[in-house]
Amino acid sequence: MLRHDRGAEFRFGKPRTNAANAEVLFLDIFHNYSQTLTPVLLEMVQNLQGPTNVEDPVQLLMKDAVYNAVGLAAYELFDNVDFDQWFKNQLLGELQVSHHRYKLIRRRVIWLIGQWISVKFKSDLRPLLYEVILSLMQDPDLVYLESIFGLLFQLLQQVTECDTKMQVLHVISCVIERVNIQIRPYVGCLVQYLPLLWKQSEEHNMLRCAILTTLIHLVQGLGAESENLYPFLLPVIQLSTDVSQPPHVYLLEDGLELWLVTLENSPAITPELLRIFQNMSALLELSSENLRTCFQIVNAYIYLSATEFLQNYAESLCRSFCDLLKDITNEGQVQVLKVVEIALKVSPILGAHMFQPLLPAVFRGIVDGERYPVVMSTYLGIMGRVLLQNSTFFSSLLTQMASECSQKMDQLLGSVIEMWVDRMDNITQPERRKLSSLALLSLLPSDNSVIQDKFCGIINICVEALHDVMTEDSETGTFKE
């Protein structure tokens, strides 16, 4: 169990730690021998009640381990632990111990409550829990923020070595990241100084990388107020993401990240923000490891101002996507199609019109029974949105595809519905299953005999989807979405 798990890395995208492996082993053993192990674990819990000696690391680690075990086995211990009483009589007090060495236990207790809150925790205790959580979230270090940040800024101005400036910027970035919006009253001088430092570092790309990192955290801390930085910020993004400029080799990755956080914190689209999207076509042609960030940037533009963005750039974006789909992995194909799906979600009419050249391939993929489940699920999501939100466009697409395939429209529609019903299990997310169900239900009012013949299949998958999206409220006994 302590070996590096190559299988886990393949399944989950990263190696499981030894601790994670030990937890899986513990759960398996506890599940199979719960009658033997439950009394042992409960006795250990009982022995650890009351105050803990903060000077004894062994006792602290033991309590952390036992509480971890109780949290992992929450469902197994449901009938054996009165968690509400334990919370009021013991855990609540432990959350209020302020000693710095007790941080380990406070963290574990909050995690433990998180494990049990959906298992066995009365709703009338929640306000008390929320009050304690709020007190834990208060930061005692904030009183030093003004002096620390001011001194760091002075140091940044005073030092002359490039490496030293980079180190100071790194510390400043860490401070901004840590305090987030609390930094806003103190960044005025830094905001005024960074354009000068950027200009001075023209020959030092690594220093510019450090400046980009600082700007990323600064924008996140300032939120919508970062709009005041645009006269400096947007030219920096423009240069960093322009593949025709030599510095992009060093600045591209951080520049894309800065571009993304700028959009995420922008209160509204501006002509200047729209203009820098001209860099995107060349970036998509690179097909580099930064493609995922590029797609996130496109999504951010769509969410921020779908109509204005699509009217300006959908045509060139669609060409880039068509080129990408010719030579891309299945995972990359899904990422491209998800951008199209978001465009259809935000702007059903304009999105379908602008990305029309991509939709026949999606239609053919459904009819041909695309073998890769995630791709098929995305195909069905796109077609579901077109059918549900823009039925006129779906009809014209069906006419076009029937002509291309030399089939009658009714015959082709029947094939689509049959494949859709058959491959519904490829769709794993409940909200996507709901979308497909609603899309197919929208066909039922038609008197088309082909649709009527598929009535039973459509109703069956809709009932299954209804079970997926509805949950029972344990307090009222009613079902809700």
TrEMBL record:
SUPFAM superfamilies: ARM repeat. It comes from the Eukaryota. One of its GO terms (biological process) is protein import into nucleus. Residues 209-474 form the Importin-7/11-like TPR repeats domain. One of its GO terms (cellular component) is cytosol. PANTHER family: IMPORTIN-11, IMPORTIN-7, 8, 11. This is Importin-11.
